[in-house]
Design goal:
The complex is a heterodimer. Chain A has 10 helices and 19 strands. Helix content of chain A is 34%, strand content 28%. In chain A, the strands form 5 sheets. In chain A, strands 11-9-10-17-19-18 form a 6-stranded mixed sheet. Chain A starts with 5 loop residues before the first strand and ends in a 6-residue tail after the last helix. The model of chain B has no long low-confidence stretch (mean pLDDT 91). Chain B is an alpha+beta fold. The radius of gyration of chain B is 12 Å and the shape is globular. Chain B has a 5-stranded antiparallel sheet with strand order 1-2-5-3-4, covered by helices on one side. In chain B, β3 and β4 form a beta hairpin. In chain B, α1 packs antiparallel against α3. Classes of the chains: A alpha/beta, B alpha+beta.
């Protein structure tokens, strides 16, 4: 699991367009680090109450703060600004295109804190910025394995090299499903509840096929054959037949594998010449889809059987 | 359990067992049976009443619907039939590790 430091610069370059942010002062502070994935409104701090001031967060100044500041005398304002910037805040954002006054900009510049202005209304900015920050702060890792979206079921296909992963993926694309990533899947834990898989940006839409080389899946199979990212619902491990001592025969109980601390359903498919792997992976994905909708065919069949054998059901 | 016989040059062995576990041969016992049976190269047939199924097939075993108290005849044919029948016998007598 890796977690990068999120500088104001990274946030700004990544989100400036979506959040309609413009830098108006404090460019020398762009390397400051945002330490918490949320924002704060510094109303109380500006009013002079600085205990519990959430200074590690992005500070958002909206109408409430702006109108409050207007009630103060220039001397008071300057003093409050000095207090605000005596804390190590990562950056300040004015919403609704509010204009920061000259004193604010001067104090910010001197403290080396970037100041931004956005056209968004405060609520909207706070919502979008929080979502964006969550994404920046989400735990990430790389999983070895290709990923395919099979009818809405995100499947990571793992297995030793040469076992037939690429062939399976190609066959699945042929069947009309979409490639998410080849060989290495970047996984992100979103909101602490679901795993999102994606291809590395640089290799996106491409695949390496042994003997042929690198192919562009999107231009070869069309735009529907690719997908930028998808929730991970299933991990399929392809294993040589001889390496699987206990082949699953019933599928009554679900096995899981941990990705970023989350349990993801996992199945092992033994590989032997003549087995249509793509078809098996496809069926495994359908089975997961049924199971998550509350069906468990093995269990249902078994319940019927037990009822028959113990005579508690008439047929 | 009968002793090993030779029919047409093949080793053959047969055993009769009563299913003793409370729920009968449902999915889990059937899976255990089949996993065990697949470790041997001999042919393993299981019959109950007039129905005979392959002992290496889960669906077959479940189809027998062998409830508690029912009688199973296990028929093994092949070189390792004695070992196979011994282990299958033990599994059934252990009540498939249930209860």
């Amino acid at each position: 699991m890796q977690r990068d430091t999120i500088t104001v610069e990274r946030f700004y370059t990544g989100e400036a367009r979506g959040l309609d942010m413009k830098l108006v002062a404090g460019a020398n502070g762009l390397k400051r680090i945002i330490r918490e994935p949320t924002v704060n409104r510094p109303g109380l701090a500006l009013a002079g109450f600085t205990r519990y001031f959430a200074n590690k967060r992005l500070q958002v100044i909206g109408n409430a703060e702006a109108y409050f500041l207007k009630t103060l005398t220039p001397a008071e304002r300057e003093e409050r600004y000095a207090t605000l910037f005596s804390f190590k805040i990562p950056a300040a954002v004015f919403s609704r295109n509010l204009k920061p006054d000259k004193v604010f900009l001067r104090v910010a510049e001197r403290a080396g804190v970037p100041v931004f202005v956005t056209s968004l209304i405060t609520m909207k900015f706070i919502n979008l910025a929080t979502l964006a920050l969550e994404m920046f702060f989400a735990p990430r890792a790389s999983e070895i394995g290709s990923m395919v979206d099979i009818l809405g079921v995100g499947v990571i296909i793992r297995g030793e090299s040469g076992i037939g992963k690429s062939e399976s993926v190609l066959a699945l694309i042929e069947r009309g499903y979409s490639l998410v990533s080849d060989d290495i899947t970047r996984v992100t834990l979103l909101d602490g509840r679901e795993i999102i898989g994606a291809g590395a940006e640089i290799t996106r839409n491409h695949m390496e096929v042994r003997g042929i080389g690198i192919i562009n899946v999107a231009s070869m199979f069309g735009v529907r054959s690719i997908r930028a990212q998808k929730r991970v619902d299933l991990v399929v491990t392809l294993k040589a037949w001889s390496d699987v001592p206990d082949v699953e025969r019933l599928g009554m109980e679900q096995e899981y594998v941990k990705i970023l601390g989350m349990d993801v359903p996992h199945i092992v498919i033994p590989v032997r010449p003549g087995r249509d792997l793509a078809r098996l992976i496809e069926v495994a994905a359908f089975q997961i889809k049924l199971k998550t909708s509350g069906q468990n065919p093995a269990k249902e069949l078994n319940d019927r059987l037990i009822a028959r054998m113990t005579g508690s059901m008439q047929i | 359990m009968s002793g090993v016989k030779k029919i047409d040059g093949k080793k053959v062995m047969k055993g009769e067992f009563i299913v003793q576990n409370k729920l009968g041969v449902h999915a889990r016992p059937a899976a255990l049976f089949v996993k065990l049976a697949n470790r041997f190269s001999c042919a393993i047939m299981v019959s109950k009443d007039d129905e005979e199924v392959n002992g290496k097939s889960i669906m077959g075993l479940m189809m027998l619907a062998a409830g508690p108290g029912s009688k199973l005849v296990v028929h093994c044919e092949g070189d390792d039939c004695q070992q196979a029948l011994t282990e299958i016998s033990a599994l059934i007598k252990r009540k498939f590790d249930e209860e």
